[in-house]
Amino acid sequence: MATVDPAVTAASLHRTDLLIGSALVPAQSEERIEVISPFTEEVIGSIPRVAEAEADEAMRQARRAFDDGPWPRMAPAERGRALLRLADALAERKDESALLYTLETGVPIGTSPALGLVTDIILRAYAEMAIAGGFTERRQWLGSDLTVRQEPVGVALGISPWNAPVPGISFMLGPALAAGCPIVIKPAAEAPLSPRVLAEAVVAADLPPGVVSILPGDRDLGAYLVEHPEVDKIAFTGSTAVGASIMASAARRMVRVTLELGGKGPAIVCDDADLDALAGTLVRAGMGNSGQVCSAQTRILVPRSRHDEFVERIVAEAAALKVGDPMDPETDLGPLTMERQRTRVEDYLEIGRREGAKILLGGGRPAGLDRGWFIEPTIFGDVDPAMRIAQEEIFGPVLCVLTYTDDDDAVKIANDSAYGLVGSVFTTDPERADRIASRMRVGQVHVNGYGTCPGQPFGGFKRSGIGRKGGPEGLAAYQETKVVQRHR
C-alpha cells in the first residue's frame, strides 16, 4: 500500500477528544472503538466510545443554543457567512479528508477528492441560501396583512452513513445551520476519521457554543440519541430497516424526520441507444465505490432485440476495471468497507446462483488479493424481475441484466420494486426519454448519463425514504412555517 504521511497519521488516526457544543473536549471514557482498514484488515485508528453522559451534554448544549443562544436569532445572512467560514476551513484540509476517507472506507484515492468537492458545493449552496434570505414573505388575504415566516424547527439530530461520511453529514449540517438549528451529528463508527477533520473545521469557523456536536459511535449510541427528549428533528441516511425503526420512534413524539434510505436503481436502455457510449457509464453507475451507493444503477433493463450486443459491451467494460490497493491512483475498485458487507454480498452471489441467474462475469473474490475485503466486479444475466437479486439491495459491485419487450414493459419492470430512489433512461429520442422518465416511480431520473447534482433535491419514493435533502427542499425540512395575521 502507498505510504501515508506520518504527520497525517499522528494527527488524525487516533483521537482522545470529541466535538461537543462547537468545542473540542477530552473524552470521558478510556474505552475505544477501533477503525479497521478494509485493505489491510488491520487496525489503523481509534476513537473514544461516547458515553451517554457526553451525549446528554451535547443535547443540553444544543437545547440551550436553540432556546437562549444567538444562532437561531441571527440574521440568516450572518449564519450564511459562518457557513462560508466552515466551508473555507474544510477546503483547506481537503487532501487530508480525502486520504482519511480512503483509509477508512477503501474508496480509491482517485475518487475520494471528488466527494470533498460535493461537500464544498453543499455547504456553500446553503450558505448562499441563507445570505439570500427569503425566510419572511409578506402576503395579503381577504383584507388582512400576513407575514409568513420560516423558522428553525429546533434541535436537529443527524445520523450519517459509513459509505460517504463527510458528504453525508454536509447534507444535514448545511441546511440545519442555514435554518438556525443547532445539530448533533452521529457519524458511523466504521468511518469516523474523515468526520474528525470536519469537527476541527467547525472549531476553526468559530461557531457559537452548542451549535454543532459530532459524536461518532455505534448503533447503540444512535438508538440512544434517536430517543433523546431534546430532539426535534431527525435526519438519517442508511438502510430502510433502520429508517423504519427511526420513523416509528419519531412518530411517538411527533419528531420531524428526513429519511434517505435504500435503492435498487433501474437503468432503462432503449433500442435506439448508443451502446458503445453508454456501457462505460452504466458500469460506473452500478459499480462506483464498489457498488456501496444507495443510488447505484444495479438493474439494467435492455431490449431483447439488443441483449447480446449490450452484454458483450458491458462485460468488457466491467472486466477492464482495476481492482486493488485503494491508495493506488490507477485503482478503479477498492475493497468493500467491512467484512460483514463482503459476507452479505457473497450471500447474494450464492442466492443468485440458486435462483437460476447466470454469472456473466466475476462471482467471487478476485485472484491475487488474499488480504482485504474484495469482491470481483460481477454481472448476472438471465435475471427474472422476481428474483431476490433483482429486488433486494445488495450494496456491492453486482449488476443484474434484465430483458423487456417494449417501453411499457420496461417501465413496468423498473417500477416493480419496493424502492424508488434513482433511475436512468438511455435513448436518442428526447421525447421518448421524457415519456419514460415521467412514468418511473423514482425521486430522480438521469437521461443519457449518471452523476450527482448535490445542489438539488434528492430522495426517493416508496421504501427509499421520506422527504428530500439538498436544494431549497432540503432547507425547508429544517424549518417550520408560521403565519402572523394582522386584521384590519
Short description:
Pfam families: Aldedh. The chain is of the alpha/beta class and 488 residues long.
Provide an overview of this structure.
The protein is an alpha/beta fold and about 500 residues long. It has 2 domains: about 5-260 and about 465-485, Aldehyde Dehydrogenase, Chain A, domain 1 (3-Layer(aba) Sandwich), CATH 3.40.605.10; about 265-455, Aldehyde Dehydrogenase, Chain A, domain 2 (3-Layer(aba) Sandwich), CATH 3.40.309. It has helices spanning about 5-10, 50-65, 75-90, 95-105, 110-130, 165-180, 195-205, 220-225, 240-255, 275-285, 305-320, 340-355, 390, 405-415, 430-440, 470-475, and strands at about 15-20, 25, 30-35, 45-50, 135-140, 145-150, 155-160, 185, 210-215, 235, 255-260, 265-270, 295-305, 360, 380, 400-405, 420, 420-425, 445, 460, 465, 480-485. The chain has a 7-stranded mixed sheet, sandwiched between helices. The N and C termini lie far apart (about 75 Å).
Features:
oxidoreductase; 22 strands; 488 residues; Aldehyde Dehydrogenase, Chain A, domain 2; Ald_DH/histidinol_DH; alpha/beta; Aldehyde dehydrogenase; Ald_DH_C; six-stranded mixed sheet; Aldehyde Dehydrogenase, Chain A, domain 1
Question: What coarse outline follows from CA principal-axis ratios?
Answer: globular
Second CATH tier, the architecture of the largest domain:
3-Layer(aba) Sandwich
pLDDT averaged residue by residue: 95
Give the oligomer, counting copies of the same chain as homo and different chains as hetero: single chain
Tell me the strand order in the biggest sheet.
14-15-16-13-12-18-19
Biggest β-sheet strands, sense, barrel: 7 strands, mixed
How far apart, in Å, are the first and last alpha carbons?
A: 74 Å
Task: Please tally the helical runs, counting DSSP H or I stretches of 4 or more residues.
Answer: 16
What do we call the CATH homologous superfamily of the largest domain? Aldehyde Dehydrogenase, Chain A, domain 1
Helicity level, as a percent range?
25-40%
The radius of gyration computed from the alpha-carbon positions, rounded to a whole number of angstroms, is 23 Å
Strand-residue proportion: 15-25%
CATH class of the largest domain: Alpha Beta
Structural class: alpha/beta
Strand tally: 22
CATH topology of the largest domain: Aldehyde Dehydrogenase, Chain A, domain 1
Low-confidence stretches are: none
The figure for the number of domains is 2
Keywords: Oxidoreductase
Domain Aldehyde dehydrogenase: 26-484
Protein name: Aldehyde dehydrogenase
Family: Belongs to the aldehyde dehydrogenase family.
